[in-house]
Amino acid sequence: MNNDIYLDGNATTAVLPAALRAAVQAMEHDYGNPSSTHGTGLKARAVLDGARARACRVLGAGTGRVLFNSGATEGIQTAVLSALCAVRARRAAGEPAGTLLVYGATEHKAVPESLAHWNTLLGLNLELVALPVGADGRHDLAALRRLAPAAAFVCTMAANNETGVISDLAGIAAALEGSPALWMVDCVQALGKLPLELAATRIDYAPFSGHKLYAPKGTGMLYVRAGAPFTPLMKGGGQETGWRSGTENMAGIAALGAVLGALEAGGTFRSHAEQCVFRDRLAAALRAALPGIVFNAPFDGALPTTLNFSVPGLSSKELLDVFDAAAMRVSAGSACSAAKAQPSYVLDAMGLPEWRSSSAVRLSFGPLMDEASVAEACARIARCGEALRRCGLLGEPAATRPHGLLQLTAAGAHTWLVLDAASATCAVIDPQPALAERIDTLLHAHGYHVAARLSTHDGASWPATGDSLRLGGQCLRRVVAGPDSLCYLLGPDSEPPRHAFIGNLEPARLAGMVLPGVVLANLLLCPATEAQSTFGTRLHACADAAPSADMHLDAHALATLLRSDPRTLLVDVRETYEHAAALPWRGPQGTSIPLNRLAGELPAWLAQAEPVPLVFYCRSGNRSARAVECLRSLGYANAWHLHGGVAMAMDDFR
Ligand code: PLP
Question: Where are the beta strands (DSSP E) in 244-354?
Answer without folding.
Answer: 294-295, 306-310, 328-329, 331-332
